[in-house]
Amino acid sequence: MVKVGIVGGTGYTGVELLRLLAGHPEVDVAVITSRAEAGRPVSDIYPNLRGHFDIPFTEPELDQLKSCDLVFFATPNGTAMKMVPELLDGNCKVIDLAADFRIKDLAVWEQWYGMPHACPERVAEAVYGLPEVNRQAIRQARLVANPGCYPTATTLGFLPLVEAGLVNLTGLIADCKSGVSGAGRGASVGMLMGEVGESFKAYGVPGHRHMPEIKQNLSVAAGQDVALTFVAHLVPMIRGIHSTLYATITSDVDLQAMYEQRYANEPFVDVLPAGSHPETRSVRGINHCRMAIHRPQGGDTVVILSVIDNLVKGAAGQAVQNMNIMLGLDETLGLQAVALLP
Amino acid sequence: MVKVGIVGGTGYTGVELLRLLAGHPEVDVAVITSRAEAGRPVSDIYPNLRGHFDIPFTEPELDQLKSCDLVFFATPNGTAMKMVPELLDGNCKVIDLAADFRIKDLAVWEQWYGMPHACPERVAEAVYGLPEVNRQAIRQARLVANPGCYPTATTLGFLPLVEAGLVNLTGLIADCKSGVSGAGRGASVGMLMGEVGESFKAYGVPGHRHMPEIKQNLSVAAGQDVALTFVAHLVPMIRGIHSTLYATITSDVDLQAMYEQRYANEPFVDVLPAGSHPETRSVRGINHCRMAIHRPQGGDTVVILSVIDNLVKGAAGQAVQNMNIMLGLDETLGLQAVALLP
Amino acid sequence: MVKVGIVGGTGYTGVELLRLLAGHPEVDVAVITSRAEAGRPVSDIYPNLRGHFDIPFTEPELDQLKSCDLVFFATPNGTAMKMVPELLDGNCKVIDLAADFRIKDLAVWEQWYGMPHACPERVAEAVYGLPEVNRQAIRQARLVANPGCYPTATTLGFLPLVEAGLVNLTGLIADCKSGVSGAGRGASVGMLMGEVGESFKAYGVPGHRHMPEIKQNLSVAAGQDVALTFVAHLVPMIRGIHSTLYATITSDVDLQAMYEQRYANEPFVDVLPAGSHPETRSVRGINHCRMAIHRPQGGDTVVILSVIDNLVKGAAGQAVQNMNIMLGLDETLGLQAVALLP
Amino acid sequence: MVKVGIVGGTGYTGVELLRLLAGHPEVDVAVITSRAEAGRPVSDIYPNLRGHFDIPFTEPELDQLKSCDLVFFATPNGTAMKMVPELLDGNCKVIDLAADFRIKDLAVWEQWYGMPHACPERVAEAVYGLPEVNRQAIRQARLVANPGCYPTATTLGFLPLVEAGLVNLTGLIADCKSGVSGAGRGASVGMLMGEVGESFKAYGVPGHRHMPEIKQNLSVAAGQDVALTFVAHLVPMIRGIHSTLYATITSDVDLQAMYEQRYANEPFVDVLPAGSHPETRSVRGINHCRMAIHRPQGGDTVVILSVIDNLVKGAAGQAVQNMNIMLGLDETLGLQAVALLP
């Protein structure tokens, strides 16, 4: 059994990691830390874990974490970067579910995250954990930056088009919608059910931190800079992201075939039959990205519809997928459930 | 008191008309028809109307309707066009909340609505009932085609840009989201709460009937044909439409000022302060369209956020606004409530 | 025009008061206070009020409040009791929407609210503002204690039975369900949509503050002490309370007729036809209590179903009703809208 | 591998069976029937099953079903009773998820289900499939009547009290609340999201089919007739049942200890610590019943809170549990997932 630790176990990505790891046959969760809840049984906060995890939250201690084979950081941005160097000095591997190691350009990172980076020397080494792009590198990695939720759904949706050089790279549009769990479990007026239930709105239109991450991904895929407009919206539901992507094609190819071929060997990307409209519920609780490709009225505008569960493929599930790859396990271990529908 | 009739009073636009007209000081609802529910008291189906309307639904009868000053059709597409000619031969004015008279090009109409038009001779005469564009014509009209819900939110959002000739007309994108009441009150598996609750999806991407209507509106405003990509999505909430609109500007102007000026005298269009993100709940139950204008990172892409209540400004409220104009009443009569928030 | 003030205008009962008073023809809202938001325009926090209230929140100042004819307290428990004495020394009337003056027995109040009462000398004078019971006293009152939400729905439901002495007073059960807006607009993890959406639970079963209030009401009506079990539940919706009430009848009478007669002259209590099941949406946004009376299988157990909008008849609407009575206005002024359905 | 068939695979209990059986290591689903959808791939209707079940729905054919080791009926009431006799004549075992074999008293069954019973001779033989009561009999059974959703949550909640003879059996009250998936996937106006979203109501108060089933269960447990008032309510969420149960105790015992002891060896009943309030989301997607026992203010009224997922322990999960027992497999196979929270 592989011994893993989770730093920051009380948020939604933390509990989702626990849910998935409870069913993982090769992993033993040895440590779950939480400063705020140290001493309290995990299942006290999350009754769905009763009978699965009977250990308590503990204070985060480096020595204890270093005894793990792999440590997940399910912490706010800016936490992992302070602890990662010491962990990597041991034999420990690390997956950061926050944004500390996602952006290669430090200046860009510091601009969008509003703080100096605490271990810039590790940024280059970190592998961006999108297996559909970086599987080989993840296999060798000791430090993986787990992608953001919007960037996962959006990058996977645009990827075949951009890799193939088939679209105008100066006018990409990503109109994205997320359930409320994406905002985490912190107390806030703005995420009360009384405020966000039965309503819909955009947010962060002047600038959202996931924009530079998506841009970086697409620029790498294109081999050149891309221009992207990214608008996030909040949906009155708990889980799910739907990215509606717009691009102008510059060449006439069979997009359906191209997408199917690009993802033919990917266990967690499902290209739906032509004409489909993926629903977020079709991936509720699972690690799949389902997508459909449209060219309305046969025009030059391609519309890609891409859905994930923001807490699974957009966070904890992708982290488990990365862990499986890093540890040489079957990539789908612990990730084989069927989506909860209805 | 003005005497009005409603044909098709059992659907969501019908009950919304009744809700609004119950508070209208100058109107008496004399007839409410429903083939299926004839004889049953209105408040039996809609208990919110108890004490406000104690009349029963009746079979639709032309003679009775002709005795009204104005008749609303809150019927499925294809119904009004069969009864309108005879009503107009009397002294009756008509507002059709369905699509029978919205599209001027009959071939386009017949293609999208899949039936021959029953009174093509009245199509040209019908005035498209968007007061912010056609107020003068509505004042004289005997037959008003009440706009669709998506077309209202989308047209009002694009209008100042397109009228001013400030955007590239070949790449307009309207990414629109609607609550479930837009689908009406007919029994269907697809709109069960078990199917659409806690999920999000696009629909009709290959082609949606509101696309030609929006295109017509924008082409009229531009004085030339426009190319538009329109994608509709279903939000797990009951009321509200959010249009997120994308356009490439071709000239550098103060968009905020331009929008504020364009709508300065409009009682039902509210341009929010720069930087705002309108929520659909801010117009729940009322006839307003609220909108905000963004230019993310100062680029060439303009993003307009435009919200309405699909049953009010997107249907029954706009119909009452049109009625007020047609009858020479204060345009805001019966439409002065405050949105229900939270 | 009557000049009114609102202390604590940023919570849900505050904004609901503003929504209702915006449509009240005889009232001018002269002051809206909020320590936290002083200086900020009201419509900045509540965009639904744009165009209706353009004044800013101000610091609560007694002199300014004393210039009002009537002051509403939409504040947390324990605030009104500190300011009321001085206001009453002037010419000002007061309606407290919190619990400071609801319980006549000071020891009981202090036990359940966990603080000493700051002006015990005014408690006896305060009139419990349930017009269906205390209309005459409210007319004369200078200080009205506006009832709680659960107590309103529950008391009105049990009232005819208890007044008539027709039930066993030792086994009353009130199984009550509320939407989330009842918990107010304070930041809390427990009321995040991620926590309360798509789930249902009971809360406060060992003891809830509304229990002694309901008991007091029913004991007054019965002329003797009653025993009551009260269980509150949280429903994943924003507005609405549904009280399901159980009692054992001791005498065989026509309950439907008795209820209809008891409430025949009440403008805001609607006894539905026999066999009905009131929905909370049938009173969304309005001041009505709708109820139905059942005797399943003709047994001895009576089941009363009673619904209100917790923010209207359960808070701000009842406060406006009380204000109308206190000021000698038509009791229904500002409260004549139709419920928003769907 | 055990070969199983599912008759009626398109409803919510059918798809839930498929979801659970997809993860069952000892079962092969050989046949899924649907008259309406014969020929269509299962995953076409339920995209969550893509990659898990690639077989199509077929017409129900007895010969094909008889080749299965066990057949589930996920059909409307009245279907299984017509096919069961012939299946039992072969070597096939049967679990009926509908109500055909739940009620032992045929006259009661025919009264509540409104039709003559098609195979009365098999009713006595059928075992009521509540493993916490009938595990031994289920082990031997060839025909299991899978309990209803409300009866499961309610019976498990009352059971220890009633078995121990500690409560007044003439005044039991079950106030139950269910998510909308309990109503199934048939097209109906009443279950549209526009009708049931953001609202709460009771239904079936004069009489609900689950009442005689619960009464039968409790009468068997008590060894005498019980009197029960049962009220069902509809919650605006998809999954989950919450039973709030009221009884008057006649003897003073440690209820918490008694409940913990009664269910100590039950893999799917979880008695929460004293003072708890179980949430339906804590069992979302899993086969557990979680419950808490209260005695508010130390009075004579016991309040039991009992939650299940209506589609799992209330239907398909309990059917899989019964199958495991009937086939001599580990009772928890295929039922070990963690609830999806949030």
UniProtKB/TrEMBL annotation, chains A, B, C, D:
Compartment(s) where it occurs, according to its Swiss-Prot or TrEMBL record: Cytoplasm
Alphabetized UniProt keyword annotations: Amino-acid biosynthesis, Arginine biosynthesis, Cytoplasm, NADP, Oxidoreductase
Catalytic residues, chain numbering: 149
Domain of life of the organism encoding this protein: Bacteria
The keyword NADP is annotated on this UniProt entry: yes
Cellular component, GO, one term: cytoplasm
Residues covered by the Semialdehyde dehydrogenase NAD-binding domain: 3-141
Entry GO MF terms: N-acetyl-gamma-glutamyl-phosphate reductase activity; NAD binding; NADP+ binding
UniProt-listed Pfam families: Semialdhyde_dh (PF01118), Semialdhyde_dhC_1 (PF22698)
SUPFAM superfamilies found in the cross-reference section: Glyceraldehyde-3-phosphate dehydrogenase-like, C-terminal domain (SSF55347), NAD(P)-binding Rossmann-fold domains (SSF51735)
PROSITE patterns the record matches: ARGC
GO biological process, one term: L-arginine biosynthetic process
Pathway: Amino-acid biosynthesis; L-arginine biosynthesis; N(2)-acetyl-L-ornithine from L-glutamate: step 3/4
EC top class, as a word: oxidoreductase
Keyword Cytoplasm: yes
Reactions catalysed, as given in the entry: N-acetyl-L-glutamate 5-semialdehyde + phosphate + NADP(+) = N-acetyl-L-glutamyl 5-phosphate + NADPH + H(+)
E.C. numbers: 1.2.1.38
Biological function: Catalyzes the NADPH-dependent reduction of N-acetyl-5-glutamyl phosphate to yield N-acetyl-L-glutamate 5-semialdehyde.
Family per record: Belongs to the NAGSA dehydrogenase family. Type 1 subfamily.
Protein name: N-acetyl-gamma-glutamyl-phosphate reductase
Gene of this entry: argC
